[in-house]
# Entry
Amino acid sequence: MRSVAAGHLLLGDRCPFLRPAPRLRFLALLTAFVALGTLTACGDAHRVAPALEVDDFGDTIRAGTRTNPARIASLNPATTELLFALGAGPRLVARTTWDVWPDAARAVADVGPGLRPNVEAVLARHPNLVVLYASAENRVAAEQLRAAGISVIALRTDKLADFVRTSRELGRAVGESASAATVIDTMQRTLARVRAATLHLEHPTVFWHVWDSPIYTIGAGSFLDELLTIAGGTNIYADRTEPSPQVSLEDVIARDPRIILAGASGKSSLTSSPLWQSVRAVREHRVFVIDTNLVGRPSVRAGEAAASIARLLHPGIEL
Amino acid sequence: MRAALLWLGIALVVLALAIAAIAYGAVPLSAHAVIDAIGGRGDAVTVAIVRTLRLPRAVLALLVGAGLGMAGAALQGALRNALAEPYLLGVSGGAAVGAVAAVALGASGPLMLPLASFAGAALAIGVALGVARASGGRADPRVLLMAGVIVGAFANAAIMVMLSNAPPNAVRNALWWMMGSVADAGWVTVAWLAVYVALGGALLLWLAREIDILSLGEESAAALGVDAARSSRSIFLIAALLSAATVAAAGLVGFVGLVVPHLVRSVGVRRHRALIAGAALMGAGLVVSADLVARLARPPAELPLGAVTALLGVPFFLVQLRRLS
Amino acid sequence: MIVFDRTVIRYPSARTAAVNEVSFAAPRGAVTAVVGPNGSGKSTLVRALLRLTPIAAGNIAIDGADLTHLDRRTVAQHVAVVAQRESLVFPLPVWEYVALGRHPHEGPWAAAPSRADAAIATALERAGIAELGDRSTEELSGGEWQRVRIARALAQGGEAFVLDEPTTFLDIAHEMAMFELFARLAHDGMAVLLVSHQLNLVARFADTIVLLHRGRVAAAGTPADVMRASVLEDVYEWPLLITRDPAVGAPALLPLRNRGPRSPSQSP
# Structure
């Protein structure tokens, strides 16, 4: 159970079993939409393309969805944070128990968990729009909310590209497309700056500690791996494609990372464990603490997150 | 006469519990609003809460309780064992294997998960029957019980292996399913479970007199014209499939099949026709009140249903044990 | 009514047959007793009649019809069997337990029996347990339980009555009462097939005795024919004395003290 809870907190619940179908469908539809839109823009007023959009469950976002929902329920820490960044914070009427950033979010009504949400409690807040985390166990809630006549968008932000897409979709859904564009732009520019600064530096090998019983780390499928690369590090488990692979201590010792990154409690757990003393980076005191709130999920602060990692890996770097 | 009054009283209590389940929830609603909402009038959100969420959920809870109660009563009689219950016979293990496999493979939608868990349960039941037949204990209910326990143990091992290799969110999803819940109740689920419970219940009631005879033992049953081996296998199959259906609909809601028959016996019911019918009623009452507690204990979060049924069932069971000794 | 014709019954892992070409008949209107040492196959015959053990060769016929061709329920309507042992997992009041004997005659939707049912009252009466009607089966002594089980078989009705060691826990009075009951049932036209160790009572009340020894019929006939020291000593491997009981006129058996390794009989 500990690993489950930790996974939830630190990884934002990545599901490795990405379903390509809705994505491909979305891309295909988007392409079609763009193509059609271009054609109509060329002047044929009679051929209007329907505004067909698809969310991460593959469900259509209803055409005619109000573009300025006055009451928004956000059941996901990532989207709550994003909505505040987009300036839609005052319109939030419900959040999950885990959505505690920024501080203003704490003032929003807590309606329980974001996974298998309490639909009744959400309904009681009379939202116009509910933003769900697009995980399989939330499908029933999505249906129940739609049956009650409420617009639902299911989104998941697993990687940086998702974040860009999600921000745009959410911005469009709540009528803050301009803010969304700004947010994305700021984040991307910060990332570019960090990438440029670390490009010509030596990239140390890094082990990213997520949990140690059993040992979970990040793989190439993970957003954290993306940040790490931008920050000028090399993930020793970049050969594993799943976002949170489980590994053995022997293997970590064999791969001999130069640096270990961990959360505060993770670091104390590692440094106090006699077993982990066999890892050189632990012995030689190169376990550095990352702010798990900052780097936990793709968010508006991804740029800052990358910068913070870069400073740990390359002390004295100018950003 | 007294018995009829007693059962009327129990039926009224169950009805009251069902009404409470519709009237109370994470969101306080006035009685007037609830009644209006059932009729479809009033605020759209209230109507949605009452008709789409609470009503099917209450009905599903009643059905799950009735199904498990009947299955438990029939099995305890047919297998001549006061501790027999459907989950002991491999049903829960097999269903869990099916569900966890579905979750691990990413096919855990509202359609696939029940199908997978039912398929897993059916497979486990088949294996248990096969193991019992292969060990030659055609008529000995102990062999059937042991076969079920073995299959259940194997299933648990398989689940542990699957979960140890699964990513955290699959583990979480699987664990939640295994803790039991009627929160995903939709009218479609209610409909097919109702068919199962009605059919399974009717069959068990039809076989109730045979169960009376089976509980006398193999020789006496044979003396009274009952083929003990075939009969106990049929009852095992019907009761196990009925339980598998409840598991497919609501996950693992433990203890009901074990405790409810004892509760019914404690009010003096002995013959199995009345016992099975009474177990349906009391089982329904137990699960619907457990769901009520699960929803109201710590709003807006919900306790797992299986945990609450165990917590409610244990004290009853202890009282019953004391009376026995 | 019940006829065993060259019946051979073998248990799965046994080298020798438990019942080896046993033939005898239990006709209506008579008490037929099957006796023999432990392991001679007596109970196996009853199990075969209950179809709990398959027959390897030969057959068992009920009123001329082969047992294996008959529906179990039909057989139960005509033949009532009291097995050697029985224990209940869930206790019942005695009258309800006795009422279960009516099962072969009732369909699945028959009404629950009532305490006042005539068949139940009669059965309780005949078995001499009218006063036990409302007790619970878990409160009975060994003897009371045995009589309750006989009452259930009586409630079952039918034309044949098969009992496997029905009087092991009964005291003298109750045992005599039971044997008198068996005799009366036979007199009324039923076929009574009795497996028993009580050689003396069997000698007094049975019309035919079938003596089994290691699965075969060692002797069969009237009590006078079968109750001979030479025959019985061979089978039971114990020194015995057979006398004639002047009070009842039936052969009576007296086991003697063992004088060391098996020695031949002395008289009469």
User: Anything to note?
Assistant: Residues 44-78 of chain B form the longest helix (35 residues).
